[in-house]
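ok so for the tutorial part 2 we go from a plain amino acid sequence to predicted structure tokens. step 1 is just haveing the sequence, like this:
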Amino acid sequence: AKSISSTFKVRSYGTNERIPPAAGMLSLSFAVGLVVSAGFLLDNTTSAEPLQLRKPGLSTFPDEFLVDLSALLTDHQIELDVDECATRGKPHNSYHHSEYYPKAIVFPESTEQVSQVVKLCNKYNVPIIPFGGGTSLEGQTLSTSTGISLDFKHMKRILELNASDLDVRVEAGLGYIELNELLHNRGLWFPLDPGPGASVGGMCACRCSGSTAVRYGSMRENVLSLTAVLADGSIVQTGSRARKSSAGYDITRLLIGSEGTLAIITEATLKLHGIPKISHAVRISFPDVVQASLTAKNTLNCEVTIGRCELLDKEMVKLINASNPLLPNPWPEHTTLLYEITGISEQSVAEQTQIVADLARKNGAIDIQTATTVDECKDVWKVRKECLWSAMSQFPDKDVMITDVCVPLSQLPALINDTKKDIASSESLSQCCPIVAHAGDGNFHVFILFKADDPAEVAQAKQLASNMALQAIALGGTCTGEHGIGVGKKQYLAKEMGANTMALMKQIKNTMDPKNIMNPGKVLD
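step 2 — the prediction. this is what the tokens look like for a chain of 525 residues:
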């Protein structure tokens, strides 16, 4: 076994009384099914007795745990360096942070090893924080009460490719960009498009989507089944390779979006799609958000095959020009729509592009440009993909708070306009809060750039994000379209879901994770 005393310092915390789970050790099926058979689902306006989760935290981080862990894994699979572990206390591109950090980073190499590690954590009450690409934005990978970071960087294999059936089974640590590089020569791709660096496991856990969701849907629609490890170390398979099934409870969809709080996803069977044969990019400038949003909504109803429909406000376009001095032609600095239009022939794509252009002109478009070659289209989408870095490069002294909300399409212009008014009313934020939107989904983001050492700017940034979330909920939308809840949006979840739905979620959490060791402090308190 490794020497522990020289590299690992035990930290002591006050002991918290553990509250027994209300459901006891129910079966997984009963946890999901009892709410219907027992009449648990009440009207959300009816009050329900709050259900408590066990308090996360440890009285000690036992030496015995590390001794057993060292016997289970090799030296290169356990990282105890304090500085390395501390990096997990402040995720990249996330303004959230924690006073705690994991006391060990563990690198499993198979589902079986994940199961063995989880069994040890269950035995010693050690919290587990899954870690994939580290790109989550709402603090999903933070440690709220020490524990271990379970890092999937050694689990990146393609386990089974069924090209004729358009599906693939992969390990959780594989990045979607890596997957698509391996699939490209076969004319296939996995089309979801979150932030660069995202891994399949994290994409499932946070129910991601991205710019291509307008055509292909979110992770929810693109996963056939999962392999996952429960809190006691049991391994479950949630489905088959069949394209549809009405067998039993839909555990796959229960785990997608659960952010590691119910089980640890180790493998996923994904739907694949053929790479579009012909693809053009269309850039359209508008006087304001209203005309651009109306055009986006109209094009979704005219049977054009739209692969992407993105909106950038004027401030974002200005930052693009400022940060890309080598652009062949600066973009007109107006509210801009970016379309990807695909088809089986140049003629069909040209005809669809003309339909979009005609609709845009009716709605007051100022300028329309079309990219038709592969390289031209890549350049357009590269600029869109790098919007965050374009904005950050122009404000090097500021941190960034990246927030998102999603509303019905008809409500998107109103919410963006209200948000822009909030931004304009802030003296310190008025010039550094560009907006980008997946306009075809009603989902938009604000890059709130602020000085982290200025309490006034921090307060204004948080207030702006809060206003967005509350307004989105009031308009029939959600406080997060694709980033998830994590630690950052827990305060809005009850407003969106209602008391009895929150009670149901806690019932499921307590049943599946009675010791609250699975990513504690995320989604639910």
